[in-house]
């Protein structure tokens, strides 16, 4: 929300409201996060415009998941400035929760409950009323037929599809995706593409281990090695070779 | 910052303890009922008081840690609790010796102080295992602080409750102190209390200094080794001090090597 | 591009109702906690019979055996209370939402209370059948009061320690080790309060002093749990 709207006491933000679009969805300046005495993230600076996609690459242990969890308000920054959707964290964590969708390695769903019940729970947590939205999403990921069976009876790929539905249930402005296509077969990948892909039009941060694939759908690429920025450039300026260097 | 004036403090403590022992053995009169054994009271009760205050300070430091997110407070809490645990063992041992000498049994359920202490020690004995069982240093510090606050609140409450439940067959030592003890007993008692408090504070500062120094040393090593060093730290129950807070501590003490 | 959703926090009672529904469903479908607790209590009564070489108990002994058994059975429940959430990423799902954190505390506390009530519906009649000398019926009103206050104490401490222990590497060991010393005052007050009620000769009145102490203990630790719970949820 821009400063003028905040002063006016408005509770919803958006370009149509105040005519001043928030240009930077994510703004990081010198972001630092420690793990005990070691450094998990050091001096990360970048700016991601609304509607754009940031790809985060790097070898294991580079801090990619830490960065994602930090943007999701699950971790506190230890130094530097973090602004998500115009709000500085961790001070304005509460303004940002509920506007972010995180799809990590864990589906964040209860195995004993069915897809419908899980989505109903998430809906209640996020203040989403009614079942219209969850039915729409279940249809979009082609899970309506098996929406009432406990998740523990479903395959990993199906659970991942329900997880995608969960991520989008509250219509988040920012998507944080950690290897979103990990458990999906090509057919399912196609299904979720309009929801979480480039075409969805949402601001996205994707962590991926597929340098070539990610170039196609990113606008900005961040390469992390041991918590430090090894590479930060627009996707147009890079080629696959530059990215594989990161993993050396 | 903890290293300043440490030597003076240590010498003062040593002097106070020596004076206390001398006065206790040679100046204070022997108790009419319990004779020479009563002198253990001069160690047992002050130890108990200092230990309890130590645990409560551990809880207070933990509150400060949760509010400021500063790992130095966690270190203070940790050292206070772990030192008080050691002193607490001393309380149980001296209490047991006194019980054996005065009433013929090594353990007596109707002595509320000892019983409360046993309960407190059983609780705080889980502090270190709790810390060790959490690998993430920040979460370890946070959970340990929650524990320290809960346990710190438990200390005074459990004393009251145990007191309610035991029949008083034996002299109520803590209550007796200021009211019924004649002059010399009081002097030695308070002197002893001061010396043991000084002992706790000195040991606490020694340990804080040592931990800070180790943290700075590790930070320097990491700087020198550069970014190639990827050694995974051993699992530890000891709080980790972040680089900034560790060097801030040394700057205040004027001994920083950076 | 759709307008970003507004972060309007959902009402706490709505969140609480949804969480309770989830707890009930998960427990009814997996039967992880309550059957084990109930069975454990009955088995423990049998153990006590053989260990004490007694056919009937009354007064202090009855009170003590009942409360110790309930406490140990409660340990099983406390150990299971947060496991599903810790293992299935439930904390993250909750923390990402704008829901009020205390809703989770209330939901878990009410769940543990429900476990204890079901446990007692099995354990108290079993106790009356197997070990209790005097008749249960006349003692029941007094006993229910003590059970209510005692359960509150177990719930307050149990929710706190359950959340503390669940994300450690030795959760099943730390839970009992930390909660039992904290529960000694609850045990003490509850046992002392129920012992005249279960007396062999004419049942005595409830000692008010122990009930008041127990209620105060519940209140103090209830406030502490409420104050520190948020710090246990964060990553």
Short description:
The complex is a heterotrimer of chains A (248), B (258) and C (235). Chain A has 248 residues and is of the alpha/beta class. Chain A is built from ten helices and ten strands.
How do the strands and helices of this protein lay out in sequence?
The complex is a heterotrimer of chains A (248), B (258) and C (235).
Chain A: H1 3-7, H2 15-18, E1 24-35, E2 38-49, E3 53-57, H3 64-71, E4 79-84, E5 87-89, H4 93-96, E6 100-103, H5 115-126, H6 132-140, H7 156-168, E7 174-178, H8 186-196, E8 203-207, H9 211-217, E9 220-225, E10 228-234, H10 240-246
Parallel strand pairs in A: 3-8, 3-9, 6-7, 7-8
Antiparallel strand pairs in A: 1-2, 1-4, 4-5, 9-10
Chain B: H1 6-27, H2 41-68, H3 71-103, H4 112-124, H5 127-132, H6 137-165, H7 173-180, H8 183-225, H9 243-253
Helix pairs in contact in B: 1-8, 2-3, 2-6, 2-8, 3-4, 3-6, 3-8, 4-6, 8-9
Chain C: H1 12-30, H2 34-52, H3 59-81, H4 83-87, H5 90-95, H6 102-130, H7 136-166, H8 171-194, H9 208-233
Structural write-up:
The complex is a heterotrimer of chains A (248), B (258) and C (235). Chain A has 248 residues and is of the alpha/beta class. Chain A has ten helices and ten strands. Chain A has a domain at 102-171. In chain A, strand 1 (24-35) and strand 2 (38-49) form a beta hairpin. In chain A, helix 5 packs parallel to helix 7 and helix 7 packs parallel to helix 8 (186-196). The longest helix of chain A has 13 residues, at 156-168. Chain A is globular, with a radius of gyration of 18 Å. Residues 14-20 of chain A have low confidence and may be disordered. With 258 residues, chain B is mainly α. Chain B has helices at 6-27, 41-68, 71-103, 112-124, 127-132, 137-165, 173-180, 183-225, 243-253. Chain B starts with 5 loop residues before the first helix and ends in a 5-residue tail after the last helix. Chain C is mostly helical and 235 residues long. Residues 1-6 of chain C have low confidence and may be disordered. Chains in contact: A-B, A-C, B-C. At the A-C interface, helix 4 and helix 5 of A face helix 1 and helix 5 of C.
């Amino acid at each position: 929300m821009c400063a003028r709207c905040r002063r006016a006491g408005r509770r919803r933000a958006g370009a149509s409201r105040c005519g001043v679009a928030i240009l930077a969805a994510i703004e990081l300046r010198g972001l630092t996060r420690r793990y005990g005495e070691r450094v998990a993230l050091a001096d990360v600076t970048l700016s991601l415009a609304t509607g754009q996609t940031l790809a985060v690459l790097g070898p294991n242990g580079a801090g990619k998941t830490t960065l994602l969890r930090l943007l999701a308000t699950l971790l506190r920054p230890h130094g530097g400035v973090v602004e998500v959707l115009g709000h500085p964290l961790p001070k304005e964590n509460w303004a940002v929760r509920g506007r972010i969708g995180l799809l990590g390695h864990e589906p964040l769903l209860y195995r004993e409950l069915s897809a419908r019940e899980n989505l109903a729970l998430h809906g209640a947590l996020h203040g989403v009323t009614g079942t219209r939205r969850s039915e729409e999403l279940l249809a979009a990921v082609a899970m309506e037929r098996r929406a009432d069976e406990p998740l523990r009876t479903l395959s990993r790929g199906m659970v991942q599809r329900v997880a995608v539905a969960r991520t989008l249930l509250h219509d988040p402005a920012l998507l944080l995706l950690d290897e979103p296509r990990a458990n999906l077969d090509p057919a399912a990948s196609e299904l979720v593409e309009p929801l979480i892909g480039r075409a969805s039009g949402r601001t996205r941060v994707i962590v991926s281990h597929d340098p070539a694939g990610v170039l196609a759908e990113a606008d900005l690429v961040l390469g992390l090695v041991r918590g430090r920025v090894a590479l930060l450039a627009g996707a147009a300026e890079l080629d696959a070779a530059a990215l594989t260097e990161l993993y050396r | 910052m903890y290293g300043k004036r440490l030597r003076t403090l240590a010498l003062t403590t040593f002097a106070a303890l020596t004076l206390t022992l001398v006065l206790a053995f040679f100046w204070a009169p022997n108790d009419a009922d319990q004779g020479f054994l009563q002198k253990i009271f001069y160690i047992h009760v002050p130890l108990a008081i200092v230990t309890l205050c130590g645990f409560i300070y551990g809880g207070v430091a933990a509150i400060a840690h949760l509010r400021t997110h500063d790992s130095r407070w966690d270190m203070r809490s940790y050292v206070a609790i772990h030192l008080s645990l050691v002193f607490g063992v001393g309380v149980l041992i001296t209490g047991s010796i006194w019980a054996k000498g005065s009433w013929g049994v090594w353990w007596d359920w109707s002595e509320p102080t000892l019983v409360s202490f046993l309960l407190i020690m059983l609780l705080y004995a889980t502090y270190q295992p709790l810390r060790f069982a959490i690998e993430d240093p920040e979460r370890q510090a946070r959970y340990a602080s929650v524990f320290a606050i809960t346990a710190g609140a438990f200390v005074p409450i459990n004393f009251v409750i145990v007191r309610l439940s035991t029949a008083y067959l034996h002299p109520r030592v803590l209550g007796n102190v200021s009211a019924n003890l004649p002059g010399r007993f009081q002097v030695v008692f308070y002197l002893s209390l001061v010396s043991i408090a000084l002992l706790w504070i000195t040991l606490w500062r020694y340990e804080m200094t040592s931990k800070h120094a180790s943290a700075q040393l590790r930070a320097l090593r990491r700087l020198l080794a550069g970014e190639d060093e990827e050694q995974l730290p051993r699992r530890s129950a000891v709080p980790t001090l972040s680089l900034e807070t560790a060097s801030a501590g040394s700057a205040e003490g004027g001994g920083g090597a950076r | 591009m759709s307008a970003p959703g507004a972060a309007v926090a959902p009402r706490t009672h709505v969140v609480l109702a949804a969480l309770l529904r989830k707890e009930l469903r998960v427990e009814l479908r997996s039967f992880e906690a309550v059957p084990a607790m109930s069975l454990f209590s009955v088995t423990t009564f049998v153990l006590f019979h053989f260990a004490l070489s007694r056919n009937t108990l009354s007064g202090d002994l009855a009170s003590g055996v009942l409360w110790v058994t309930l406490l140990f059975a409660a340990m099983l429940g406390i150990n299971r209370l947060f496991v599903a959430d810790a293992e299935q990423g439930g904390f993250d799902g909750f923390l990402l939402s704008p829901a009020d954190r205390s809703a989770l505390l209330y939901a878990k506390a009410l769940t543990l209370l429900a476990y204890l009530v079901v446990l007692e519906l099995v354990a108290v009649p079993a106790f009356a059948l197997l070990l209790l000398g005097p008749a249960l019926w006349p003692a029941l009103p007094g006993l229910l009061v003590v059970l209510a206050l005692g359960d509150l104490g177990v719930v307050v401490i149990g929710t706190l320690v359950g959340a503390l222990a669940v994300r450690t590497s030795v959760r099943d060991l730390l839970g009992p080790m930390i909660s039992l010393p904290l529960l000694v005052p609850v045990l003490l007050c509850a046992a002392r309060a129920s012992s005249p009620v279960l007396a062999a000769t004419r049942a005595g009145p409830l000692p008010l002093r122990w009930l008041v102490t127990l209620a105060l203990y519940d209140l103090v630790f209830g406030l502490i749990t409420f104050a520190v719970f948020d710090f246990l949820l964060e990553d």
